[in-house]
Amino acid sequence: AQAPFDNHDCDIILRSTDGVDFHVFKLILSLVSPVFKDMFTLPQTDLQPDVSVPVIPVAECSTTLRSLLLLCYPAATPTFSNIDDVKAVMEAARKYDMEAALSRAGDLAMAQFLPTNSLQLYALSCRFGWQHHAQIAATRTLEIKDLGRPSSLFTGLRDITGFDYHRLLVYHYECGVAAQAV
Description:
This protein has helices at 26-32, 34-41, 62-72, 83-95, 99-113, 118-127, 131-140, 162-181, and strands at 12-15, 21-24, 55-57. By secondary structure, the chain is mainly α. The chain has a three-stranded mixed sheet with strand order 2-1-3. Helix 1 (26-32) packs across helix 2 (34-41) and helix 3 packs across helix 5. The longest helix is centred in the C-terminal third of the chain and has 20 residues, at 162-181. The radius of gyration is 20 Å and the shape is elongated. The model has no long low-confidence stretch (mean pLDDT 90).
């Protein structure tokens, strides 16, 4: 992996599904993730006798793992290519119980993708319980004229409950009624 995950003084290596090794430090992972902290306290069986640094295979691809780790390392911020990359990082952060990384990913997603992906950001915000972000995204979705009509443009319905989608439709309706009354 690229810097800062190429430090050979590391004490653990995380290997992505596509075979990229991330040289990281247990201390940093333990501070940001109770899952990793607990994992590191378990007795380690020496399955790799010829390796001085243990390798832990993870279920994430290198793009997701790099962004997730950048959210955890000091003075590092990832950039996301698209909303699906952010979603994958958010899922990984939730899986490893990395609350600060999850929150930072949400903030970065809102800053980067709100103008073009307000509906998906509303769905993700509802999914992760971020009411403030959900309200901001809902307000931005008022620009979508055909909301509620069948469309293949919004794949984010997988990430939202029927109740949250209904709330958004009610919000749109109420805003429309209020606008007509003016």
